[in-house]
């Protein structure tokens, strides 16, 4: 490739990334899309095969760091990490793990907002693969259908168990709830602490990040204040 080609190529890339370099996108945690960027062949290999591959590559990382994998303490780590990735912390990448949701008729005709607050979650920053965690508050006004309260929690956990960006997590939970509940009247607020901000980088241990989605009736100043009062009290 000629130098001019290289320059053109990187210019194109800079345009598509709004003028940011990949390094900046990651370090500043900028969001590039609302969908989790997945490969089209994401599920062509089984979970067992994925675990084997991840264990292999993770042992390479550890060895490259200079760690002695024959040590009893480290021996099991690659496999342990692979199992944790697939079965736990990144299990939300697989649509098969999506919680099954049953809808019920809103028999009692309760037509005010319902808030499930302080849903504790753990997710992982997709730019650094270190945890971010916090509380999600979810609210909706029934369009005639309701779901079990524990399902609100399960939906939050499902989307949290992906490499994530907080804005996307907020939107994915909201969009899914709108679809399940067949209403636009959904709100999601997430207050989270990012270990990649507190334990490295700027090492700020006191800041937290708040993201929100206010759909339908929630998207008015009065409703937002009402919602925030419920959440803060
Ligand atoms: Zn990060």
From TrEMBL:
EC number of this enzyme: 3.5.4.16
Binding positions (Zn(2+)): 125, 128, 196
One annotated Gene Ontology cellular component of this protein: cytoplasm
PROSITE patterns recorded: GTP_CYCLOHYDROL_1_1 (PS00859), GTP_CYCLOHYDROL_1_2 (PS00860)
Keyword Lipoprotein: no
InterPro entries the record matches: GTP-CH-I_C/QueF, GTP-CH-I_N, GTP_CycHdrlase_I, GTP_CycHdrlase_I_CS, GTP_CycHdrlase_I_dom
Catalytic reaction(s) noted: GTP + H2O = 7,8-dihydroneopterin 3'-triphosphate + formate + H(+)
Domain spans labelled GTP cyclohydrolase I: 56-222
PANTHER family: GTP CYCLOHYDROLASE 1, GTP CYCLOHYDROLASE I
Family from the record: Belongs to the GTP cyclohydrolase I family.
Protein name in UniProt: GTP cyclohydrolase 1
Organism: Kordia antarctica
Lineage, top ranks: Bacteria, Pseudomonadati, Bacteroidota, Flavobacteriia, Flavobacteriales
